[in-house]
């Protein structure tokens, strides 16, 4: 008994069928035809019937639509090409176990055409030497984690993240208290120079916490509540909604109607000149907040409600204790820091196509020190569960996967190029059509 190569024998059966059809063009259009063939030296005779495959009787087992190779069994193609034999047959091109290799067979096809005849190697032939070698393609390079087990050891909570975030929240609350005696012009200056950096960094800490890197994947509730705590100086509820939508960004990167980081058609058409693109960058916090409501609205969750109530209570407390200026300072820090600010260059640097064929870029400059290593973006998308503090180690362990890729060297230059390069704009993103989004519409 000979183990047949199912996929190759099915391919030969199809070629034989095409030759037979060429000789019988004059009979095209006739009704269903039935033929009979027996397979010698294999596992049982068997009869295949059904539309495009069906059940295999006599030899045992079942054949799925389209036939296919597998452990055994005859296979056929969609449209009634079936070979006898036993055993389970998968979907695809067929062939099976048996001495005749391809084998004959009977079956009823969709188009009423049925093949009958011998396999290419003849009935009962078991000559393996007559087969051509199976074409093989080179296997893809292993993923970094498979090649370097040390990377898996980096997938652990960041023990310092909770303390770093707590210190930043307290520092911003202290700045609020100091803002009471500032003149308005100095208030906005410090909101841009200091508060903008802190609040933008806190939003990136929330990004890190949304991947459960503060307390680990086994304690998701603690991570969510800690993200709400980190949200307090931002002034507006943000953490719970970000968590809800950021999962889609990783799962459907660039997915039209699913990844809400991709600008809308309206943004691309309107903000297409240098002056308009500059305005678009300045208004980035508003678009980032409102875009999900237009692109992929989702029902409000309990955590979002809790986030909103806690944030409103914190804002009301700050206003009651220290007055208007501290609240203006917090909100200005968020709007200015997430708008036209050097740190905001990472919004554009991460996924806008500065080079054709490359949609994700990393940045390894000094601003990573105050942005929780968000610049290591290629590494982050490869390993979302690795905390930001360990992302530089990923590149150090597996440099051959990252060092040769295009990278940015300055977020300020990224913003400059985005504004003044006509080939860049909100449309300079890879957009994919996702069936999930189509089914939702």
Automatic annotation (TrEMBL):
<feature type="compositionally biased region" description="Basic and acidic residues">
    <location>
        <begin position="108"/>
        <end position="119"/>
    </location>
</feature>
<feature type="compositionally biased region" description="Basic and acidic residues">
    <location>
        <begin position="1"/>
        <end position="21"/>
    </location>
</feature>
<dbReference type="GO" id="GO:0016020">
    <property type="term" value="C:membrane"/>
</dbReference>
<dbReference type="InterPro" id="IPR005804">
    <property type="entry name" value="FA_desaturase_dom"/>
</dbReference>
<feature type="compositionally biased region" description="Basic and acidic residues">
    <location>
        <begin position="29"/>
        <end position="54"/>
    </location>
</feature>
<keyword id="KW-0443">Lipid metabolism</keyword>
<feature type="domain" description="Fatty acid desaturase">
    <location>
        <begin position="185"/>
        <end position="407"/>
    </location>
</feature>
<dbReference type="GO" id="GO:0042284">
    <property type="term" value="F:sphingolipid delta-4 desaturase activity"/>
</dbReference>
<dbReference type="GO" id="GO:0006667">
    <property type="term" value="P:sphinganine metabolic process"/>
</dbReference>
<dbReference type="InterPro" id="IPR011388">
    <property type="entry name" value="DES1/DES2"/>
</dbReference>
<keyword id="KW-0444">Lipid biosynthesis</keyword>
<keyword id="KW-0449">Lipoprotein</keyword>
<dbReference type="Pfam" id="PF00487">
    <property type="entry name" value="FA_desaturase"/>
</dbReference>
<protein>
    <submittedName>
        <fullName>Delta 4-desaturase, sphingolipid 2</fullName>
    </submittedName>
</protein>
<feature type="compositionally biased region" description="Pro residues">
    <location>
        <begin position="135"/>
        <end position="144"/>
    </location>
</feature>
<feature type="region of interest" description="Disordered">
    <location>
        <begin position="1"/>
        <end position="144"/>
    </location>
</feature>
<keyword id="KW-0519">Myristate</keyword>
<feature type="compositionally biased region" description="Gly residues">
    <location>
        <begin position="55"/>
        <end position="107"/>
    </location>
</feature>
<dbReference type="GO" id="GO:0046513">
    <property type="term" value="P:ceramide biosynthetic process"/>
</dbReference>
């Amino acid at each position: 008994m000979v183990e047949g190569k199912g996929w190759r024998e099915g391919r030969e059966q199809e070629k034989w069928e095409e030759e037979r059809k060429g000789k019988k063009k004059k009979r095209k259009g006739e009704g269903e035809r039935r033929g009979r063939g027996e397979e010698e030296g294999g596992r049982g005779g068997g009869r295949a019937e059904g539309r495009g495959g069906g059940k295999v009787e006599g030899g045992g087992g079942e054949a799925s639509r389209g036939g296919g190779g597998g452990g055994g069994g005859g296979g056929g193609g969609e449209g009634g090409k079936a070979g006898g034999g036993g055993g389970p047959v998968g979907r695809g091109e067929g062939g099976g176990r048996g001495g005749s290799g391809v084998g004959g067979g009977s079956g009823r096809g969709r188009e009423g055409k049925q093949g009958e005849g011998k396999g290419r190697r003849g009935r009962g032939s078991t000559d393996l030497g007559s087969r051509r070698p199976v074409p093989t393609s080179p296997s893809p390079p292993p993923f970094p984690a498979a090649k370097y087990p040390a990377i898996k050891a980096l997938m652990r909570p960041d023990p310092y993240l909770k303390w770093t975030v707590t210190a930043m929240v307290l520092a911003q609350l202290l700045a609020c208290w100091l803002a009471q005696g500032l003149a308005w012009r100095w208030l906005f200056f410090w909101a841009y120079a200091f508060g903008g950096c802190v609040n933008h960094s806190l939003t990136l800490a929330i990004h890190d916490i949304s991947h459960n890197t503060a307390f680990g994947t086994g304690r998701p509730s603690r991570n969510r509540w800690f993200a709400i705590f980190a949200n307090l100086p931002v002034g507006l509820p943000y953490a719970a909604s970000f968590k809800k939508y950021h999962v889609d960004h990783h799962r459907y990167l660039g997915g039209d109607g699913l990844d809400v980081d991709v600008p809308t058609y309206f943004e691309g058409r309107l903000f297409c000149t240098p002056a308009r693109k500059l305005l678009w960058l300045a208004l980035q916090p508003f678009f980032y907040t409102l875009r999900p409501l237009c692109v992929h609205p989702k029902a409000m969750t309990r955590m979002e409600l809790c986030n909103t109530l806690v944030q409103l209570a914190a804002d009301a407390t700050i206003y009651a204790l220290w007055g208007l200026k501290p609240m203006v300072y917090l909100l200005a820090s968020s709007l200015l820091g997430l708008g036209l600010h050097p740190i905001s260059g990472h919004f554009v640097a991460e996924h806008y196509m500065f080079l054709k064929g490359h949609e994700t870029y990393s940045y390894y400059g000094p601003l990573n020190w105050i942005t929780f290593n968000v610049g290591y973006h290629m590494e982050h998308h490869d390993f979302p569960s690795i905390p930001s503090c360990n992302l530089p180690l990923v590149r150090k362990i597996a440099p051959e996967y990252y060092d040769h890729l295009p990278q940015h060297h300055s977020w300020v230059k990224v913003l400059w190029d985005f504004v003044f390069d006509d080939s860049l704009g909100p449309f300079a993103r890879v957009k994919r059509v996702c069936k999930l989004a189509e089914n939702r519409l």
